[in-house]
Write a structure and sequence with these properties.
mainly alpha; 0% strand
């Protein structure tokens, strides 16, 4: 299964319950990897704190997508609530990450966001 096929199936509302556990795991990994790359794109914007407004919807969509793959139907408000609860549990880490990204963009304009891309990808993926 390719990443593009997984995303196409997700948008079409495919029933992933027919997949075996390994198939659902691959589909979830495709969604998470795509979200990690999308988060990197959001961080690459040279405006400090812009990633907060650009990456958060990506993370909510990731939570909704992975939930759908594993048979947990969530609407947008439930996805936002779940993401908020997860973010609150990791609050200090998330705040420090956002501050670090913003400082990198202020200290080294334009390049600062690019410096943080590997970090953002790995944290989103994890």
């Amino acid at each position: 299964m390719s990443v593009f096929k997984t995303l196409e199936d997700l948008f079409k509302g495919r029933d992933f319950s027919k997949l075996d556990d390994a198939g659902r795991d691959r589909a979830a990994k495709d969604i998470v990897t795509t979200a990690a790359f999308a988060s990197c794109a959001a961080v690459a914007a040279p405006v400090p704190l812009s990633d907060l407004w650009l990456a958060t919807p990506v993370h909510v969509a990731m939570v909704l997508g992975v939930g759908h793959v594993y048979g947990r139907k969530l609407n947008r408000s439930q996805g936002v609530q779940l993401f908020t609860e997860l973010a609150a549990a990791a609050g200090a880490s998330m705040a420090a990450r956002r501050l670090g990204i913003a400082l990198a963009k202020v200290i080294v304009p334009v390049v600062g966001g690019w410096i943080m891309l590997p970090y953002v990808f790995s944290v989103t993926w994890a």
